Amino acid sequence: MSVLKGRAWVFGDDVDTDLIYHNKYLAETDPNKMPQYAFEYYPGMENFANEVKPGDFVVAGKNFGCGSSREHAVYCLEYAGVPCVLAETFSRIYYRNAINNGYPVLFVKGLSQAIKDNKINNGDLIEVDIEKGLIKDITNGLELSGDGVGNLEKEIMDAGGLFQYLKAKAAEEK
């Protein structure tokens, strides 16, 4: 993966999966239709689905994706063209759903405080190197480092998700 650039959509701590993708839309099974509901119930971000552009990033504080387990909360961002989610920490279930579906997430130290201190804001142009874990806010010069994607997670993402990864590994063993 190369260095990616896009606008930041900034969220706080404890972003619940119901705020990412509300449970009233769980009957939708087509991931191409899921982005239209992203963050519809997050106060101040009700227009996210209409305004997000492919290449934009979701930037959040601690405990992103807490609450109920639902792959919809991963798919609605992935299919909206958000290349990865940046957060200080993720709930374990969101993290596993993302990796298992081949969707990158990046743990970024200090991100929660940077958001609280308004050092990164909605609309800032940011540059992200997922493999090295480097984030630069081009708008204001803020630089943060996160944990680069681990080898196993990278292999799973490169394969397109856990199922494809396991199929490839099984084929190698034959």
Radius of gyration: 16 Å
Q: How would you spell out the order of helices and strands? A: EHHEHEHEHEEEHH
**Mean pLDDT across all amino acids:** 94
CATH class: Alpha Beta
Indicate the CATH architecture: Alpha-Beta Barrel
Please estimate the helix content.
Answer: 25-40%
Quickly count the helices: 7
Largest sheet: 7 strands, mixed, barrel
Domain count: 1
Short summary:
The protein has 174 residues and is an alpha/beta fold. The protein is 29% helix and 18% strand. The chain has a single domain (3-173), classed as Alpha-Beta Barrel (Aconitase, domain 4), CATH 3.20.19.10.
Give a structural overview.
It is a single chain. The protein has 174 residues and is of the alpha/beta class. It has one domain (3-173): Alpha-Beta Barrel (Aconitase, domain 4). It is 29% helix and 18% strand. It has seven helices and seven strands. The protein has helices spanning 17-20, 48-51, 72-78, 92-100, 111-116, 151-159, 162-173, and strands spanning 4-10, 57-60, 85-87, 105-108, 125-129, 134-137, 143-147. A seven-stranded mixed barrel has the order 1-2-3-4-7-6-5. A hairpin with a 4-residue loop joins strand 5 and strand 6 (134-137). The relative contact order is 0.18. The mean pLDDT is 94.
